[in-house]
Amino acid sequence: MDAGAFRLDEAVADVFGDLRLAPVLKRLLRHTRRLTGSVAGSVSVVDAAASSYVKVAEYGDFCRLGDTFPLDEGATGRAFDRRRPVVIPDYGRMRTNHLHGRHPGRKGPAAAVPIWWRGDVIAVNVAFTGAGGEFTAREVDDLEALTQAAAAAIVQSGRHDLSPAGAIRRRLASPDAVVTEVGVVRPVSPELARVAADLVAAAARSRVRPRVHVAVVYRPDGLRVLVQGASGDGPAGAPDPLGLGARTWDELLPRAGGGVTIEEVRGWGVLVRADLPYTIGAEREKSPFTPRESEVLELLRLGLTDREIAGRLVLSAKTVEKHVGAIMRKTKTTNRTAAVIAALEHDW
To answer: What is the spatial distance between Cα 95 and Cα 267, in angstroms, rounded to a whole number?
Structure first.
């Protein structure tokens, strides 16, 4: 890629334009793609104490988001181990890699750049060029500068994010309230955090005082909020409170059903449960694709050829070619991979 088309100063300024975590990571990945011409990339947060890392943002490969991996594997693990940017000549030849078998990013080099804060590696930014791609020394240097510039934004974003747990703690403002988070924590809209806090506050006022225990559960399809309070007729936290073989919140989660319920549990208290979709307050641009184009786009994302897509959808290859052309036109791109990346970035 022509490095002259990439303005590092403009990219850094853009990364700092909004200090909420999700926008910070999205812009970091967008500028990483512009700088390197990569077909896929990801940012993972490192938990050195647990010897693991969690993928928290990605583009071009949307199958492992939220997964946890051992810190001694993958491109992230290599960058963490060496404490410096690394270029892996052929990512697909690594002992452990996390792209599916037909993903274009498997064939070609990958660059992994650590993100430092106060002497510790807190995250790693990884880019995959695909077959025939390469990383120049200038690109790696600029990528390191861009990535490290995001460190302060990532740290600051934790102070500014209106997380559900933080909103609930502020609303309750009670020393008897315990709020815990379960699962892979992800950014949510301010509106969703407010709805969760309103729900808990209303439950605490009317049903579950004085002692309140709240679990905020990050599930794949939405946020689950569990509110438990002692009723005064027995000790809070009694063994197996629901008779479901669960003695802890983590054990309770897979056994609890969906919907919104309020249960009076003798000897344990009151349990309020609600499932809230992540789409509450989320900004989502309407997809420009027809239903058939969306089907073709999904198969493009899986790496299928026009002939394979035609066989899967029982269409002619010429018809598939027309749909692919329409997808590229609507995404304002000139090739299939770029079209898939653009659609994923817009959540289409």
So the answer is: 53
